[in-house]
Amino acid sequence: MTSGDLFIIVTVVLSWALAIGAVTVVLQRLLGRTSIVVQILLVVLATIAILVAGMVSAFNAMFISEADLQVMWFILAIASVVATVVAVLLGVGLARNTNRLAGDAARIGRGEPLAPQRKMTSELSALAAELAATSHKLEESRQREQAVEAARRELVAWVSHDLRTPLASMRAMAEALEDGLAEDVSGYHQRIIGQTDQMAVLVNDLLELSKIQAGTLVLDHRPLDLYDVVSDAIADLAPVAAGRAIAINGDAVAPTLVAADGASLSRAIRNVVLNGILYSAHGSTVSIAVTSAAGEAVVEVRDGCGGIPAEDLPRMLTAGWQKDAGRTKSRYSGAGVGLSIVHGIVEAHGGALEVANVEGGCRFRLRIPTGQEGLGPFV
Predict the structure, then answer these.
(1) Looking at the chain, which runs of residues are DSSP E strands?
(2) What are the helix and strand counts (H, E) for the chain?
(3) Phi-psi region of 342 (alpha: psi -120 to 50; beta: other; left: phi over 0)
(4) Strands 285-293, 247-253: pairing kind
């Protein structure tokens, strides 16, 4: 074969290849919404057409015998049929896997579990893994949403309960005063004031909780001594503890300086101590300790509640949740949001609230960053 013949063959083959390739691209765009099987089959048929055109051009240029040409046609026909069948089988398998992934995406939307993965190409396997991860994240999100909704309903129920009771009592006393049936008018007035105070505490708790959950709680960080904060809480809650025959032990409270918001941090510590008093057994002791190390102060409160069931520990910081339907009535009682407020205040300070069972009761630890270098126990 001369160089001229070779040039002619290459030119003809390239011409056929460009022409068939252009037609294939146009057809792929026109059939863009068809099955992936059709797309694969179109590529294979285009490849076969280019191969046949090239072989025919070469046969004509080489002037081979008719018998040899017939054999080559048989070979091309068989190869084309086999290639087409293989392309269809591969396309059907790929389409099946793609449809399976589409079904998985639909299951994710319906919140259903995904079927076990089968062997796929690396790209489809990566897509299936992403779908599985997305399904897992959505399931976690749904569970969190359900937990939040349940907590919201529970909180509304507790708030309704805690508002209805004092309102009904105040209405009854007001009607008695209006009808002149109250013998102890001054006592009725005092009880109405007490019920009003109780409702004010509830409203303030809910307002504080809404600020925390909305992220609008404003903190005024200033140096303060936790010894003074804890001492004030003990002095304020001493009558409540005495009424329940509970001792408060603050011997382990060390003078510790932190940079924090005094009002909110005082409320958080007071709520934890009050929680210990209200739920401790009569005659037990609530112990309070304040220590500091590694740039953080730790306020630890141990009570004598007898411990918390393991299944209830994760719900301790959920707004509105209480183990018992019976409420402990005092001027400090709210809607079961005390520990939720503590948790939010501590987190707003960049700290953490830890709850654990210890011998005879529970331990609450408020870990609060000192806020600046050099703050710590006084010497």
Answers:
(1) 221-225, 247-253, 257-261, 285-293, 296-302, 352-358, 361-369
(2) 8, 7
(3) alpha
(4) parallel
